[in-house]
Design goal:
The chain is mainly beta. It is built from two helices and seven strands, in the order ααβββββββ.
Length: about 140
């Protein structure tokens, strides 16, 4: 295993965010689908060009719920909660809102679709999240 898999421009900030978590996520319910995900280093790769790859040290799987509003304090409402999929709506006062749908393929692979509004502008993104090993 290489010393570090975090070689992207935003990796340090993203990893630090992953280690610290956010206060709002800590109070959100954990959907069943997220409970099967392995902890550790995850690479969240966008499906569309122009977006950066995120490298997250996943301790709390709820970190995957608000990829677009990572540093915002948000409140969550779980819309769908199944063993292999979840849909969550979140609101971030002053920052926007979003809806995230997750489909868990295995404990090491997930598909994420998120859409909403951030700072008055709409967004719609799709990601593939893949477990890469231990956090460094």
């Amino acid at each position: 295993m290489t010393k570090s898999r975090f070689r992207y421009p935003c990796a340090v900030a993203t990893v630090l965010w992953g280690l610290m978590g956010t206060p709002s996520v800590a109070h959100a319910p954990v959907p069943l689908a997220l409970q099967v995900l392995e902890k550790g280093a995850w690479q969240v790769k966008p499906r569309s060009p122009g977006e950066g790859v995120l490298n997250i040290c996943l301790g709390d799987p709820r970190q995957l719920l608000q990829l677009y509003h990572q540093r915002s304090r948000c409140t969550f409402h779980v819309i769908e909660d199944r063993a292999t999929s979840a849909v969550v709506h979140y609101t971030c006062p002053g920052s926007g809102q979003g809806r995230t749908a997750l489909r868990i393929e295995t404990s090491r692979l997930a598909q994420i679709h998120t859409q909403g509004v951030a700072k008055g502008q709409p967004f719609a993104l799709a990601y593939e999240a893949r477990h890469k090993g231990e956090c460094h």
